[in-house]
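Help wanted!
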Amino acid sequence: MATRPPNDTEDPALSLAMAVIMSSPTPLLLLDGELRVAGASLSFCETFGVDVATASGHHVFELGTGEWDVTQLRALLTAIAGGTAQIVAFEMELKRPDCETRCLIINARRLVYQDLGQPWLLVAVADVTDARASERAKNEIIDQLGVLLREVRHRVANSLQIVSAVLLQNARRTTSPETRDYLRDAHHRVMAVAQLERQLSESQTGDEGVELRAYFTNLCNNIAASLIGEEKAVTLVVTGGGLVTSRVSVSLGLIVTELVINALKHAFPNGGAGRIEIGYNSHGPNWTLSVRDDGIGLPDDPVMSRTGLGTGIVQALAKQLQATVETAPAVPGTVVRVEHVRVALVGENEDRNSSATLSEGPRSEPTHDEPGRSNANEHVARR
Amino acid sequence: MIVEDEVLVAMALRDELEAASYHVLDLTDRHEQAVAVAQESTPDLALVNIQLRGRDDGIELAKHLKALSIPVVLISGQVSRARSAQTVAIGSMPKPYSAVEMVEAVTYLLARIDGDESPPRPSGLEVFEAALGDHALS
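Answered by r_m:
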């Protein structure tokens, strides 16, 4: 089928189409059903070194020195001309003599218009070589920054370990039991942050997510090693879990540290076996962190309730996380729930209302287990 | 024996080990120094940080100590690096570690070397069984 170059036609519509194509700033080709060039934009000719005067009428695969004669492109254009395919974004490398190889994105489609007897193909060519190079360079920089960030976190963790070592030494040397307790608590707080930094230093995803289950398990192992003596057979159990940002995780880690230390100090005054369960569950933007023990429970006199530094830290961190803290009796023991509710989800209000009395056994959350029971979804630290 | 580049961390660990009735040799933080102490005193166990003073490498030191038949526990913030040395060390402990947990690790490993499997293994401790078997009493 012969091509009708724009200057040879007296069809005003086709002439207008050719003029539009010629002046397109995006490299464009108009091909006939035989894949011959009917029109090429000046931008195409300039970008790919094609002689604008001789392009028209030639087979597209004859352009230049034949660099467009790529098997896959030929097959795809033929299929489009036949109406059996449409290229959305075909990526190819254009190799021209004495020129740098370019990376191109080809978009081609068969034009739909009134003259069904003459198929036309509009081919748009985007040179993404520089964009791809920029993206590679950007990714390399991101990778390098990730390595540096992990190294910084690694060093922060080491520095925090030095601080915690000093606190532990001071605790060992002091003669006051009360001061020793304070120093050991401070040691655990520093270690909680240090362990998070270490976990982040090993993470390939950076700040995108801290796996709470692993983090809480490490915290509990550390606390169990130093606070659970031979005379106390208390088991620490971590249930649930999820991914949160490092900023949130450091607060949650400190809250868990405080609540577990608090439970170990106060819930089991007579020694013996006990269990502390740390649970984290989330639903969309909402989450609940709970620390439940099966110890002696809350004191009868509210004045005797705990109001020390640890309680203040938990309240402050919860406020920072826009969460509420609720301490309630469990059967047996005590449960502290730190709850963040951003959006009221359908059906959740009913659940919350049903557990408003808070005390009659475990909540109905599927990942929380009854005290004293163990399952495969738990991580346990014990002495 | 403790070979650790952070002296305050090493001191806290030494205090905790001594409180648990272990005898700890003079603290060292470099390869040559550590080898000299090890040759003189032949410790039952060496706790070696992977990163030492003066860019000395704890894994190289572990190879040297292994040649002296001294079992080594590597301490590192980079777990993968410690694992790469499991032919020369009997275990590794990740940093940051609790000094108390490290004492438990020492107790556990010394018991294993003596053929006693009863002490519980601290959760943070990774044991390299093949290398431990080389040191264990039959």
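OP: Thanks! One thing I noticed: The CA atoms of residues 280 and 289 of chain A lie 5 Å apart.
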